[in-house]
Design brief:
heterodimer, A: alpha/beta, six-stranded mixed β-sheet, three-stranded antiparallel β-sheet, B: alpha+beta, 4 helices
């Protein structure tokens, strides 16, 4: 039976999702920091961090795009049981999950409109590793200068130039997350 | 701990012919059972099997929608408080419960019965629990209909001798 697809949610939804939300919020508010996040045990294709982010932020009102090999029966069923989020293509999603290679090009995703810049996507990028070095970041939430290992540089710089429109990124690896909001300048 | 369950349920009249018809029936009977009744019947039948939670019982509300006459445009009838949970028996069957009201203990019993109905003792569970619930339900309907029938007023007109 479909039992494994149904397990691996939060055992204590109220408490664990509050902790996970705090981690996502801290990561978003302080770009370049790496936070711990845990609680979910999603199907093996997804990391625990990406699973926890999805359980915390997604519900029936947030269309999700599963990129590449993540778009499989196991992940779809797991997401459907635990969040009820509809699965859609990249042009209509509020969240997209996948590796950097499967998520690109970024032009596929909605960047919001001048009246409603919030109607844009948040990309959850699965990374093999997260390091606080690499490109340098500057902007809101960063006191002087921060660093983060990004899979590429140019697309993020182009994304920042769209501000106040643009995409936001959450990088996940194992049980750790980092984030890069559109307001952060990369150089 | 309360969380909000938002489900849109469209109550429609359809030809009942899909494969889940039987399961829909028993889920419906148990969802409407009075407080404590499913637990009582389950405990009278057997020792509760061991299980693990897939989703611990949680309370929320769901919008019930209806169609006038069963065919009109859908409209929102109102919100119903719902308790839901999901569990897995150690033998592997998965049971779900969506029941009316704030009743976590009952949701657990209903999910257990749902799981048992998919196991090899389904017939026993059917005769000792579900049949009883259906009988309760039928009796309640009949009592209500009888009560209403007692208030029925018979109108008749005397012949006025005009023709």
């Amino acid at each position: 039976m479909q039992t494994d697809k149904l397990s691996g949610g939060f055992d204590h939804p109220a408490i664990q999702s509050a902790h996970a939300f705090r981690s996502v919020m801290e990561a978003m508010a302080r770009p370049g920091t790496v936070q711990d996040i845990h609680g979910a045990e999603p199907p093996t294709l997804l990391s625990s961090a990406a699973g926890s982010v999805l359980l915390t932020l997604c519900d029936a009102d947030t269309p999700v795009h599963l990129a590449g090999e993540l778009d499989c029966e196991d992940v779809r069923a797991w997401l459907a049981f635990h969040t009820g989020a509809p699965i859609v293509g990249p042009a209509h999603c509020m969240f997209a999950v996948g590796t950097w290679v499967t998520l690109t090009p970024l032009s596929l995703y909605p960047i919001g409109t001048p009246e409603y810049p919030d109607r844009s996507s948040t990309l959850i990028v699965e990374c093999s590793d997260l390091e606080q070095d690499g490109v340098r970041l500057k902007g809101p939430g960063i006191q002087s200068i921060a660093s983060l290992s990004l899979p590429e540089v140019d697309p993020f710089q182009a994304n920042h130039s769209l501000f106040p429109l643009g995409l936001d990124f959450i990088f996940t690896s194992g049980s750790r997350i980092a984030a890069l909001p559109r307001s952060t300048e990369i150089f | 701990m309360y969380s909000c369950i938002v489900i849109e349920k469209v109550v429609e009249m359809k030809d009942a012919s899909d494969e889940n018809t039987r399961r829909k029936l028993w889920m419906s009977v148990m969802a409407k059972a009075p407080k404590g009744r499913v637990s009582e019947l389950l405990d009278a039948t057997m020792k509760r099997p061991e299980f693990t939670w897939l989703r611990a019982p949680e309370i929320g509300s769901t919008m019930v929608r209806g169609r006038a006459g069963g065919t009109g445009a859908p409209f929102n009838l109102g919100e119903v408080t719902v308790t839901r949970c999901a569990l897995r028996l150690h033998s592997g069957e998965v049971g779900h419960a969506y029941i009316q009201g704030r009743r976590k203990a009952d949701a657990e019993a209903v999910a257990l019965v749902d799981a048992l109905m998919q196991s090899d003792i389904a017939d026993l569970v059917d005769t000792t629990i579900l049949q009883n619930l259906e009988n309760d339900h039928a009796a309640a309907r009949q009592a209500r209909a009888a009560k209403a029938a007692a208030t029925k007023v018979e109108f008749f007109t005397m012949t006025r001798g005009e023709d």
